[in-house]
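DM from R.C. (forwarded with permission)

"hey, sorry to bug you on a friday — could you get me a structure for this? deadline for the figure draft is monday and I only need the backbone to look sensible"
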Amino acid sequence: MTTYMDAASYGFSPHASGRANAEALQRALDQGGTITVSQPGTYKLARTVYIASHTTLQFGNGVFVQKSDEEGAFSHVLLNKGALTKTYDEHIAVENLHIVVNGVDARTFHDVFGLHGQLAFFYVKDLRVTGFRCMDLGKLQYGIHICTFEDIFIDDVIIKGEKDGVHLGRGKRFYIGNGTFETYDDAVALNAHDYDVGNPELGWIEDGVVENCHDTARSTANNDCVGYFCRILAGAWKDWEPGIKVQKSDTVVSNGRLYRVKADADSKQYESFTRPEHAQGTVVQDGIQWVMVQDTVTYTAGVRNVTFKNIFLRKARIGFSIHFDNDRFSRSYYPGAPVPSQEQLVFDNIRVLHERETPFLSANTPVDVITVVSSSFQNNSIMFHGNQAMADYLPTRINLIGCIFNHKGSLDLVANSVPDKRIHIRGWANTKMDDSSVVCLVPGPGTIDAQLDI
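My reply, with the result:
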């Protein structure tokens, strides 16, 4: 194995076609070791290239990788080889990759159904992505998409455009830091559950840190407000049984595997009488397209033990959404499934830097503990609302420690609309910056037990 080489020696060149560059870069990556791209310039790329274990890919200053549709639209610029066989790749580093989407924005699913990052990894351990840039995301693909992982480190990223910046599926131990996001959809998505096309597998996302990140707006009007800085998405499902009614994106457990419904987003319900049992791919039974998702069985998915620290929210939208979907694209919670309570989320030094009255945090899933530390609020509330997914949303405990409230007049700090929801809130060392400010708690059809110092 060659341990250190420049991709130029394999023909990777700013003067070559996208087809030739794809072949050249693939030949270099197949050697493993450390591959560099040192000559400045724009390098066309006409298809996905694949990276394997124990490989570092380094791009020099002034190097741009531009997608080219010489062979038709394709999804990923770079994908790990193990994604194709659900085999873990290990110890991969990608440094200073600057992708120019160039309008080649496509969910082809040629490699992995549900995976559609410009930079994508599926079944990966010990991954490091640093210095990533993408300034022209389209409406179909995420910037970075990683699912089924252990020990990933994403640092120093700038991502702008229409779709999610960094989108994670199931995995454990992660770091996302020092990022600037200017995205129409979510800046960061922790989607333990997802649409059928949104992630290739389902499960818990746990033990992570998101820090030193900026959520910026594309216009001074701050009116491009779709998505959130961070979506924190949970879900749950049941065992298959004869006569079970399912719709797009629903999941069932059958024969030691998870299966999902692939369908149009038309709210149509199907009745299943034939148990899905196939080991891979998609099979149509009773008019239902069942996709075999994974053979690791879990009945719940969510986010737990994650800290958000030093986050600067300039875009006037909901900062954090502790989330269920319940629409024609997906219903995260199947009626009667186990309750997926998201766990112990910490928000440390979150700075709201816009003045629009919009929630700091919105929760429509069960969550056990929310801790907010040293954060600065404007006209921003913590809201609990149901989506008719379940009868009991379980109690939530809120800790407010050392926070600053900059509003004038009245603020509904905590507002609830969930029947019988129980909220316990405690506060210490908090400060109001204006003598006219009043903090209100709105229990709605539930109860709030409070001990606050403001």
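R.C.: lifesaver. The radius of gyration is 23 Å.
me: no worries. DSSP finds one helix and 40 strands in the chain.
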